[in-house]
Write a structure and sequence with these properties.
Helices cover 44% and strands 34% of the residues. The protein contains four helices and seven strands, in the order H-H-H-E-E-E-E-E-H-E-E. Strand 6 and strand 7 form a beta hairpin.
Length: 144
């Protein structure tokens, strides 16, 4: 009984710390959507845009599609249309981002598929090990 209470207490403390850090990190590193909801509050804050495709360019800016939203990024250097870029910049009150730096990452979709395949292989391996180690008997799981 003591171990169960201890485990539940540890899980409760862990859950509290996770919730607290989620609140603090969201405020310390706001997402683009948080910034667009309250532009006056987050003007000048650093934002990161994960790899997104460039849809158009202008003389001093380019536009990316970030999870379905179009975001204008102001930069002196411009990527090619169709390239995938990861952007670090400061949020502007008009909803755009002033680029501090950006990196072209054209292999992003291939890397993402590789991560998914590795995750699926690991899941299948764990399921096979579990299946060989345990069996369902008398309405419960028992070691073989």
């Amino acid at each position: 009984m003591y171990r169960i209470v201890l485990a539940l207490g540890a899980a409760g403390v862990f859950a509290f710390l996770c919730r607290d850090s989620a609140d603090r990190l969201a405020e310390a590193y706001p997402s683009v959507w948080m910034c667009m909801e309250h532009p006056e509050k987050y003007e000048g804050r650093h934002v990161w845009i994960s790899p997104s495709p460039v849809t158009s360019t202008a003389p001093s800016s380019f536009e990316v599609i970030h999870y379905g939203d179009r975001i204008r990024v102001h930069s002196r250097l411009l990527p090619n249309v169709g390239a995938w870029v990861m952007v670090h910049g400061t949020f502007q009150i008009d909803g755009s981002v002033e680029s501090i730096s950006w990196v072209e990452d054209n292999g992003y979709s291939l890397k993402r598929k590789g991560v998914l395949i590795v995750s699926l292989v690991a899941l299948i391996a764990v399921a096979l090990i579990f299946h060989k180690t345990f069996e369902w008997r008398d309405g419960a799981i028992h070691p073989r």
